[in-house]
Specification:
With 246 residues, this protein is of the alpha+beta class. The protein is built from 7 helices and 7 strands, in the order αααβααββαβββαβ. α1 packs antiparallel against α2, α4 packs across α5 and α5 crosses α6.
């Protein structure tokens, strides 16, 4: 949606620019011809001015159409490069690089506005068993499946990212620790209840979560570290659960 809107906006600006260039070309052509034929007969002056309008009215749009086409190709190429640099190719989620940059920005914004910010680190339980039993293609589909569940279960405006392997993260505004716990439970239950149908065979997995709320003076790294320790605690307590950071 955002990419389409960006392309539409870009194309509209190119069309407006093309219109300005065409009109300016006609105006300049007419002005130059007007002064050039000021002393000739009226009939010849009329024909000259007519050509002064027609030639740029035909040539300029053709030239600008080609220019717009080339600019649009470059725009699409730039958008694709940006997508590849900031999105995980498999799941379509933000990648670690994008999460680090956007997460730091959101943390600074939340601190300035005194808005609690919650971070959840999610790991798929026993993910290696999926790969070992069904193959790596099934593992890839499971990663996409869990990514979709996280997107659907996360609050509106949340930053959902894949950190690597079977590890994901969600960064979102919360009201308090109870709110963050409710989000974690929603995600945990959503993954537990959902089923991936792979080649006619249902595959179910669970997730473990470590959650933390940003404190004054926190960096993204320090919040991640606390959430990561909580994740290990959740796994050590039996998996398929969440643990709050100390």
């Amino acid at each position: 949606m955002l990419a389409n809107q960006s392309t539409k906006t870009f194309l509209a600006s190119q069309i407006r620019l093309s219109g300005i260039v065409v009109m300016a070309s006609i105006a300049l052509s007419v002005t130059l011809v007007w002064f050039a034929v000021a002393d000739v007969a009226a009939e010849f002056r009329f024909i000259s001015l007519l050509y002064a309008v027609l030639i740029p009215a035909v040539v300029a749009p053709l030239a600008m159409s080609y220019t717009v086409w080339q600019n649009l190709k470059n725009h699409h190429l730039h958008a694709e490069v940006h997508r590849l640099a900031n999105r995980d190719d498999l799941t379509g989620l933000a990648n670690r690089r994008s999460f680090t940059r956007e997460g730091a920005r959101r943390l600074a914004t939340a601190a300035a506005g005194d808005t609690p910010l919650g971070l959840l680190i999610i790991d798929i339980d026993w993910f290696k068993q999926v790969n070992d039993r069904f193959g790596h293609e099934a593992g890839d589909e499971m990663l996409v499946h869990i990514a979709r569940q996280l997107q659907q279960g996360s609050p509106s405006g949340a930053l959902v990212a894949r950190l690597g392997g079977e590890e994901f993260t969600v960064l979102c505004n919360v009201s308090d620790q109870q709110d963050l716990s409710a989000i974690a439970e929603t995600l945990r239950r959503g993954a537990e209840d959902a089923c991936l149908l792979y080649r006619g065979e249902p595959i179910r997995v669970t997730i473990s979560l470590g959650v933390a709320i940003a404190r004054p003076g926190d960096t993204l790294s320090s919040v991640l570290s606390r959430a990561d320790k909580a994740l290990y605690a959740a796994k050590n307590c039996g998996r398929n659960r969440f643990a709050l950071a100390a």
